[in-house]
Amino acid sequence: MLSRFMSGSIRNLEREYNCTVRLLDDSEYTCTIQRDAKGQYLFDLICHHLNLLEKDYFGIRYVDPDKQRHWLGFTKCIAKQMKSQPPFTMCLRVKFYPPDPAALKEEITRYLVFLQIKRDLYHGRLLCKTSDAAMLAAYILQAEVGDYDPGKHPEGYSSKFQFFPKHSEKLERRISDIHKTELIGQTPEESELNFLQKAQELETYGVDPHPCKDVSGNPAFLAFTPFGFTVLQGNRRVHFLNWDEVTKLKFEAKTFHIYANQKEDKKIILTYFAPTPEACKHLWKCGVENQAFYKLDKSSQVRTVSSSNLFFKGSRFRYSGRVAKEVMEQSAKIKREPPEIHRAGLVPSRSCPSITHGPRLTSVPRQRRRAVHISIMEGLESLRDSAHSTPVRSVSHGDSFMPRHRHHTTDAGEGGSSQRVISDEAYCPSDSVLPTPTAEHSLELAVARHPNGAPCSIEEEESEAGTPEGQVAEFGPDGGVLRLGRTRKSLPNNEVQELHKFILSVLRMFLVTMGLLFALLSLLIMLTESDLDIAFLRDIRKTPEFQQFHFEYFCPLRRWVACKFRWMGGFLIDK
C-alpha cells in the first residue's frame, strides 16, 4: 500500500515542475504547473497575479543554454520549448511597446511600461542626448522620491542612484537642478506619464536591439519599433523603414534580408548577418510578430510566413495574438475600479524599484546582486566612429504612422539627411552584448576584474534560464566579455552545421531536378510509345513540331539505345 502511494506521488511530481518568472520590479513569481501546460496558461497566471488586463503588450522571455534569447510561445507546450531541465526561470518583459503610452487605459499598465523603459534607460537600450537623459532621470526621481526636500536630500543626492550605464558629475548636477526647480508638485502618476511621453519621442524608444554586421562587416544593431524597422550604427540611426514600406522579411542561415518598397515604387533589399543561425531565426520571428502586430488591422489577416525559397525547406511561423488596433479597441471597453498600485521608494544603484500588489502567497523574495560598474563600451568594439552602413537609401518617420505629438520630430529631408545623431555616445546596449548569467551561484560573480585590472560587470538584466555548471567567460582584447564557454561540453560547431545544411540543400535540389526530369520523360514516352487516344495527347501528336521531333530526334535515339542494349545482352551471353 505504501509502495503504491509512493509510486503515485513520484508520478505526480514527474508530471509537474516549478517555474519562476522574474517581474519588471525584480521580484519573482513562482508557481507549479503541469508538464503539458502551454505558455498561455503561465502568462495568464502572471497577469492575474499583477491584476493586469491590457496584457497583449507583454510577453515572457527566456534564454536557452546556448545564451540565445527567445519569446515563450503561448500556443506551445512550455517544456517542449525549453532546452534545459526544470525548474525553469524566465522573465516578464514588454514585447510590443505601445505607440502612444499615454493612450493606455489603465494606470497599472502605464506603470509596468514605465518600469520597462527605466530598464531600457539603465541598460543602454534607450539612448538619448544629455539634455533628454537629464529630464528622464529627473522624472524618475520625482515619481519615486517626491518633491525635493533639503532635509531628506543632501547635496549630491542624485549620485546615489544609477539611472544610466554611465554618467558624469555634470549630468548628476543637471538632474538635481531639474528635480529641485521644474518638477515640484508633480504626483507619481504625472511624473510617470511625462516620462513615458518624453521617452516615446526618442529615436530608440521601443528598441530591442539585435547585434549584427552589414555587408561591409561593420557592427550594427537591428531593431523593430512600433513605427517600423531601424538600423543603428555608432551614435546614428542609419536606416529606417516604416511598416507600410516593409514587404517581406527572410533569413537563410546567418543572413537576414529586409525587402521594402519606398516612394516612387523603388524597391530595396537590406542584408545583414547575425552572429549565429539561431540568432538570425530569432530576429526573423521578432520581425514577423512586430510587423503583424503594428501593421495589420485585424488578427484574421495574419498569415503563416515562410522563410524558404522554392527548392529549399525553410522555417514557417505565424503570429498568434491580437493586433495593436484590436488591443486599443478592447482596452476602451475596460470598466472597473483602477487597481491599487503600491509604489516603493527608489533603491540606490538599482534599475527598478520594488512594487507590491497586496499579499504574495506564491512570490519568492530574493536579494539581487547587481554590479554597479557597467561600461557602455564593453562587449563589441566601439561603434563611435562607424559611419558605414548598407549602401541603400533609408527614409525617415512618415506622418501616416506617427502620433500627432511626434510630427515635429520627423527627419528634415530624404536620402543622406536620414542619418540622424541619436546620442552623444555610441549605441552599445549592455544586455545585447554581454552574456547572461542565470544560475544563482553565478550572480555572486557579478563584479569581476579583467586581466588588466579594469572592473568588469556581467549583466544580469535578463537572467532567464538555467545554465549548466562549469562555465567560463572568454574576454576580448579590450576586456569586454565575448561569450561564455563550457568546460563540460563544447558548443556545436556552427560551421559544421552550416556545411550539413548546405549539403542537404544541394541533395534536395538534385532530387527535385531528377523528379522533374523523370516526369518529363514519362510524358514523352506516353506521347510517342503509347496508344492512348486522349484528346490532349492526340492534339500534341498532330502538331508539326512534335512530328519533326519524333522522326528526326526521338526515333534515331530509340534505335541507338536499342542497339546498345542488344550489344550489352550479347556481351553478357558470350561471357
UniProtKB/TrEMBL annotation:
GO terms for molecular function: cytoskeletal protein binding. Gene3D superfamilies: 1.20.80.10, Phosphatidylinositol 3-kinase Catalytic Subunit, Chain A, domain 1, Pleckstrin-homology domain (PH domain)/Phosphotyrosine-binding domain (PTB). Keywords: Cell junction, Membrane, Phosphoprotein, Transmembrane, Transmembrane helix. The chain crosses the membrane at residues 502-528. InterPro entries: Band_41_domain, Ez/rad/moesin-like, FA, FERM/acyl-CoA-bd_prot_sf, FERM_2, FERM_central, FERM_CS, FERM_domain. GO terms for cellular component: adherens junction; cytoskeleton. It is found in: Cell junction, Adherens junction. GO terms for biological process: actomyosin structure organization. The keyword Transmembrane helix applies. This is FERM domain-containing protein 5. It comes from Oncorhynchus kisutch.
